[in-house]
Amino acid sequence: MQYLYVSVVKAKDLPAMDISGSLDPYVEVKLGNYKGVTKHLEKNQNPVWKQIFAFSKERMQSNFLEVTVKDKDLGKDDFVGKVGFDINEVPRRVPPDSPLAPQWYRLETRKGEKTKGEIMLAVWLGTQADESFPEAWHSDAHSIRHLNLSNTRSQVYFSPKLYYLRVHVFSAQDLVPSDRGRFPDTYVKVQIGNQLRVTRPSQMKTINPSWHDELMFVVSEPFDEYIIISVEDRIGPGKDETLGRMIIPVREVPQRIEAGRFPDARWFNLHKPSGPEDEKKKEVKFSSKICLRITLDAGYHVLDESTHFSSNLQPSSKHLKKPSIGILELGILSAKNLLPMKGKDGRMTDAYCVAKYGNKWVRTRTLLDTLTPRWNEQYTWEVYDPCTVITIGVFDNCHINGKDEVRDQRIGKVRIRLSTLEADRVYTHYYPLLVLHPSGLKKHGELHLALRFTCTAWINMVAQYGKPLLPKMHYVQPIPGRQIDWLRHQAMQIVAMRLSKAEPPLRWEVVDYMLDVDYHMFSLRRSKANFFRIMSLFSGITAVCRWYNNVCYWRNPVTTILVHVLFFILVGFPELILPTIFLYLFVIGIWNYRFRPRLPPHMDARLSQAEFTYPDELDEEFDTFPTSKPADLVKMRYDRLRSVAGRVQTVAGDLATQAERMLALLSWRDPRATAIVIFLVLVLAVVIYVTPFQVLEILVGVYSLRHPRFRSKLPSVPVNFFKRLPAKSDMLI
Fold first, then answer.
1. Between the N and C ends of the chain, which has fewer C-beta atoms within 10 Å?
2. Is-cis flag, bond preceding 222, omega within 30?
């Protein structure tokens, strides 16, 4: 996209316009109906602005650029001087050309006569690849005040570098409770910033308790937080006494890179809580002690998003990071058919995009009051693993008027898995922007993206498919499942807090939506979607069983005869079985190549069971945790959940029954059934030993493929026998 850039640097020797002998100058840059204004500087005849303006060439309504210096007054602003430019004579700059040097221009009156004062300007034609583009004031944001201009600019962010911190609490010695006549009921409380965790109460109610409990936290560089560890005595319900406390800076904790080695545990002094001033001055000759092992585990990858669509799988330690295998290039081109998100305010949509891959976040500029924004911005990332996902979200900017209490609205989101992309191919496609609301599914428009994955190390990329998805430490010393979700939530909180402090801020609601904070929460809609996913996987097995049943019942005699011939060939030449299977799989793969997907997959409303979801189910999905709904509605949902769980319980019980019947074959729970089984297996052992194996294969195959004339509609004898075996279901209360 072509842009006209105007760099307003400074001015000198401006004439005095006020009675005080000075002026409050500012610059107005006007091109057709578009007008940009610098900030005004009070009482300054040699002002310095250093502001850049960018005007989209396709929206230019004039071939004449006018730069006017004015004096800010309470009433009408005074005219100081102007400079004019013919657009056709403006030079063109294409990076990597050096920046255009600004020049001094003498100010003119409205009649074109030279007047006092000079202004330093640089005017050139360029593209969005110009390094001045991110900092420039854009004609798309011409109605924005300077205070809110930063909220519309493009920006690149980086997530903080996260680590897992492990605190292993072993034991304590010589605790001094206030009441010496009772045994203390102790536990350890560990706090880092907003993260608070406690151990289980010690089973030894003595002054030398032990816990052997392990707590994990998430910390981020530059490690400016402190670890506060205290031993608490539970005196009564809701009443605890602190027996001792210690504070350790996070930056003093040693890092652990190798999975098999733990540093030795250490004894630390516990200090009494702060008391009166005179007690502080006393020299402490005795203190309780606590045995701890604290490590900064740099061999893990800190999960800040779901592993199903993670964009980064690198360990925290830079010494363990994998080499790069390629480059991902993303072009955020445009959007179309957006819905007016500010229709109530008489405006359309102020749209911007956010893309996340790895620890790098990018934000495009905000295009104001349009339903067909065109960004045409390009970004690149290094790729370390092909089995990762890039996420692109579109939002409506609600902070262009300085209202901090409102939240940016979601317009839609797109996820693209890199492993589904062909290398060195440019994918240009419109992706639907779907958002689920409590009122139902809405399509807010379409996002136009250009995507290319360029592989720079083919051997390393192919080798990645045989390596573990996560770093080695996740498998050698796995994190307990009960802590994974809590740690992921804490990591998301740290990332959101750090990015919200940037300028312009990437706000909490944006980070939450991009990272899918509530993905692990219960949703009946997601449960249905996962159930149908499982059923679709079993549909292939069901189709094979249906085909085999048709063969056995001679629905197509020609197919059944061919299956008989193939069966006899494989029995006669068993060495052909495995080659035949693998050759069949090869032919299927080659045949399916014609039907391979030409475009990356996107959000599927039908797969997500979002098209025909009941309003009450959506209302439950968007409910807070804990719930904020009235008691009668919660009771109704609880009863519904009980009915669904009852069906799941029945299926689980049926599976357990079948497994217990298998074990009952030889367990003598049914003496007669077990006697029959062991007699039959003895007979089968003798028959199989005497009879050639190929003869047995032919007999079994011919029996299973027998004609329907020789079949009975009643269940077979083995099935009847199996269903009569005992299970433990009759032992349940």
1. C
2. yes
Is the Cβ–Cβ distance between 290 and 426 less than 8 Å?
no
| Model confidence at 228: pLDDT above 70 | yes
Residue 492 · residue 512 · CB < 8 Å: yes
Neighbours of 506 (CB within 10 A): 23
**Residue 378, strand partner residues:** 331
Q: Residue 730: is its pLDDT beyond 90?
A: no
pLDDT tens for 385-411 read 999 999 999 999 888 776 666 888 999
pTM of this prediction?
Answer: 0.81
Euclidean distance between CA atoms 55 and 58, whole angstroms: 9
d(CA 350, CA 357): 24
Token pair recorded at residue 2: 């072509």
Contact (Cβ atoms closer than 8 angstroms) between residue 499 and residue 157? yes
Q: What separation in angstroms does the CA of 295 have from each of 219, 252, 349, 406, 535? A: 12, 10, 49, 41, 45
Evaluate whether 400 touches 341 at the Cβ level (below 8 Å): no
Q: Are 39 and 96 in contact (CB under 8 A)?
A: no
Give the whole-angstrom CA distance, residue 93 versus residue 79: 32
The secondary element (H helix, E strand) that includes residue 474 is helix 473-476
* Total residues belonging to the chain: 733
- Secondary structure (3-state) at 404: coil
Strand pairing report for 255-256 and 288-297: parallel
Whether omega for the bond prior to residue 468 falls within 30 degrees of 0, making it cis, is no
- Residue 24 and residue 72 in contact, taking contact as beta carbons nearer than 8 Å: yes
Alpha-carbon span 643 to 590, nearest angstrom: 46
The closest of 198, 151, 569, 139 to 363, measured between CA atoms, is 151
Q: Is 391 helix (H, G, I), strand (E, B) or coil?
A: strand
Measured distance CA(592)–CA(582) in Å, rounded: 15
User: pLDDT for 421-448, tens place per residue?
Assistant: 999 999 999 999 999 888 888 899 999 9
